């Protein structure tokens, strides 16, 4: 756990300014009929899961350039996740990736206890070969070979088994299956094989679990991908049953696609299950949330906040990013806060006024109503929520001041960099 | 009807060459185990509908530059459509657009009799104001105002009523409803209003009719569109019932999207209803079929030919293009033949060999199997099919030789050009 | 001119709140070492030109839906432009489009005097036929026919002549020339003809004038466009000479393109001449500035503010939008303010700190430095700048309260709507 | 070298059919006024370089799945390249990548002599860390740190030095430098540093060498890339001098971009230097040439064939692909033949007729003229050119029959698969 006194020390110097800014914002919001305390309560209650593997430096097919203190084990990763939550108070759970995070469940639970963390959705991996008898070079759950499919199914069932011991309640399935050439696969039969495998996994779900189907337009397959878009993901969830839902990763769409509309459609269909947050400019860039198109992130949250009262809506939120040029802990902290920021801004939208403008087709004022919420600088609310929960007003400053990265760099084994997947 | 003797005259000069090319191709295909006569039979049986409005010169929001002999009425348009079918023998039906093509059904049937044409799907228009009490500026079937929705519903029901008298069996619904600003509409409620209106129209479908929902990512709405992709179109068809299907327009997708995969998915879902053929490079460019990415057109047909035996599959094929810089009759003839070409090429695919390569994950040979079919120059088969049916070996040459455009230019009133929608 | 007393009345009710917000912001900025008065001065000095034609309701190729009080003449348009500037105090000049705005220069100057407006860049129109002997159906400045090119050149020279009388100092040339089919034009020779025509126009530039080349990836041409990107625009400006520059329209790029980088490159090349501001999600959507991706607008301004001290940099800023579903006056006011907002936010960037982070490859803090400026709610600064200059704290509220639209609707002739360019 | 007798054996069975198809095609082309022997001569003279590294199985950031017989050294790679050329007779040269292919030049020359291969352009690598003192994590030729830039410059100079000993005449520079966050780098100064480094490398070019600047829109950098498009590449080549040219990789552009137009513009500017051939559907997919959009490949060649007579035009052609799911030797053979196919098809275009249609703005016939050439099945010409040069009529069949892959799998050490760059 991050040293409490260092957090206090870091907070002390800026606490007065925060109070002033908070009051000024409160006064301004009050004039608009918004109670800042209500909003602060929402900020406090907000949580997004951190992916264990996100604590390591990511890379591309060209290269990976590790930093100092790369976590070597899931226990290192949980230590790093604890830092993120200690400082931001917004990331109380961790999402595991099997087999990367495989360990004795008892040890994992003990570490969770020690770090104050819980476990979010489980993630399976059939997009690389990690030691099974059958290779996933030509697919996994949709492979033409039944034995390969069986291996992939068994792996997913094992993920559920592990997760059940850890208190997780969901399995997220993303596969890279697809093709690189027109004709390489029969797209219809490949999808049927995928559905067949998913049904086997579905059968293994505990009563109170859910399964998430995650779509992605391309990569690692470059001509076709089995679950390429939300339409296919929806078909999948429909065919599987009531415990099956769709998971939306913000970076997995074709250029120009209106993602917030997909969110709205999946809510309509009763099949929205959760999110993988990140940002992107070109493809599945896995950039830090809110750093490229913050307004798009806000618009997604606008849909979610609007739909809060929808019966049965139960969303799993996770960050899913690749941190290639930053300290992953820092990126995860900033990203958690940017996601939280968009959520809080979306909470400021005057929905009664908006509904009125929409009814009147007053496009200009409807649009202005969203922008007014978006441009409100809610940093004082976020900072105050952190402060009150024992976190840092400025997590990056506190983190750097405490020298955590230097400590783990000294302690953990050095990792070699090198080429990526390309050669 | 196009003068038969002029067709004969045009054919005579090239008939000998055609025979030679046809024989050489037949010999080559025989070596590959393909009977050219079987393929020719398929070419002969092929048909694609022509849109009545496609016979007029199209334009953009910047301008429209009409040509000579623009058709002024649906009867002119049917005359032009007859020329297209007389020469290509591939376009026996015409798709009408209401209110543009509104006329006494008896007169339309008489004209159809005279020109040897039939009527394909009906198309409604609620994307421009054509005289109703309520404006579609802010939407039609999904408008916030119930009276406006009722007007749009009534218009669609009228289209069915007219079509029923003409022997049409389907209504295609494409609406431009959407928004230009985030916040302008509540995307979820807008979709619900759309579904409500569609259900009213669905109730008015005769027993043997179908309704097609057509998706489009954007334009004329530039932030969101109600039926923006095949996922929403699928949800619509699912909620409406068994007479509702999805129609795919090749130019209505986000950049990079794999359209043939959408075709495959809709076949899986039992909801593929038909196509609007055209080609595009950027947006909904409505360019001539097969002129930009002919291999993509082939890959779409590859899915369709592969799925021919699917129980219940019944597809409506129509050309939907905007001819801005060519003689529309010429573009429609060439487009019909390019669509037919891709269909015939797809019919050459060695599906047994392909299935074997797919089972073996022999991506290289699977891909080569498709390309081998695609690169076969099937022009002799197409030309022979036309010739045998009374059409022209080279429709463009025959059309130009006959001077049809000059005749209608002399006969029909001159149309003024001018600005487009922008100002 | 907009009634001063109504502006005063509207301001009075919110002036107290503004003072409070302004002071709170000033205090906060002071802590960051920023003098709010300096920033306010920048806001006050900011100006962006309004396009005369933007005051009318725009449309698409499918339809145009006019509103009430559409301006019928350039004098009506100048009245509307005066309202925009009276209320926002950010749009002192108007950009004319010939032949749409053709009138006796003396009358135009008198009207400018009356409304307190000046004239910005001139815009020529060779993308639609407006009465010349030669049609632009197949191109204008790059047409294969010398007489058509000569007509287009003469039109541009006339635009310069008119502009010179009005005090304008630049001509913006955007042409729709291109092709809809591979092979339709020889792309190399077409470009050479374009350059030849531009050189003729260049010769006609007065000593103190500049010419701007504006690129656009597609539309109205859908396969190729002569000046399709900044590379071709740069080649053009290089070949023409030192009075030739490139103009960047934010909506004229391929999907995913990094526009702020193009800005940076054109500054490097010494060839950036100006901007057409708008926003877009798909193509050249011409949506209101800052309504889709406000952070992108900020990043463009970040480059411009960074480069302010570049010797010789002299930028022409204009709004170029199509207002299809809003009151154009309202959209232009909001857009002018959003552009101003991004400019002011970019002025808050701590450039010394940023340079330090960049030197250290501290990507996280560099990125945070930009976001910190962006998320500052500078509305009090903008409002105060307007107030001090005689404008409205809340221009939309003041405009609506004054009933201007109702007045012109009563006064001006009703305009019929109808189809767009498509049919 | 590939066993001649096995080539003969494979050819023997299909030689008769080839003769028949060749004659039929010759007769058909003669009718169109084309001499098949002239075209065959062009096919025979065609050559495209093979990248040494392309002989190994590629991968993505998610995983790499090696096949059997992966080449372990440059000498293995040259053996594989020899097979490709022996069978296709279209790839007489190999392009080396330093440091991957570093070896004693004398040994390389001896191996080249033995395999009958020559050396094409040299390629430097500063997108991954390969042992230098300074890391390229934050850039190479454009790094903020002078020592890192110096290391990258020295590496490029070493590539020239090695290449000079091998008979190479050009250096291709592609760097991954850019940024992942807005603000991470000052885009203008970063470009200036890049230009400064390139000027140092340029100074080291031997008299008869050229340097190629290769642009790419994104990856591995995901927000900005220093040489992001042909505009920046052109600026670079212009500032460096007359030995500097631009290299176009077909997969390195934004969605929808018209690549053949870029080719045309670079020819106009006198700065087109060469190509990296591949195909793509989404990003830099590095798929096999001609497998996704064969018509696009044809259109590029159409520009090149059209420009053949341009004084000073001297193009370097190389394949640059990532073979993730096929035998790389097979993919390189097929790709070389597909590139050759497009070149030969483009050689069939009736340029006099085309120029006439273009002059008349007969878009339909101009477009048809290109398609007529494209749809000609030139396989007999390609096969005959191979046969006459000692290659295989059907290289894939001959290669598989000879069992080369099994031989090298038995002989070469097994390579472990595993994760890509992501973790």
UniProtKB/TrEMBL annotation, chains A, B, C, D:
It comes from Pseudooceanicola albus. Transmembrane segments: none annotated. The gene is rhaI. Keywords: Isomerase, Manganese, Metal-binding. This is L-rhamnose catabolism isomerase. Pfam families: AP_endonuc_2. One of its GO terms (molecular function) is isomerase activity. It comes from the Bacteria. Gene3D superfamilies: Divalent-metal-dependent TIM barrel enzymes. InterPro entries: L-rhamnose_isomerase, L_rhamnose_iso, Xyl_isomerase-like_sf, Xyl_isomerase-like_TIM-brl. The lineage of its organism: Bacteria, Pseudomonadati, Pseudomonadota, Alphaproteobacteria, Rhodobacterales. Residues 96-286 form the Xylose isomerase-like TIM barrel domain.
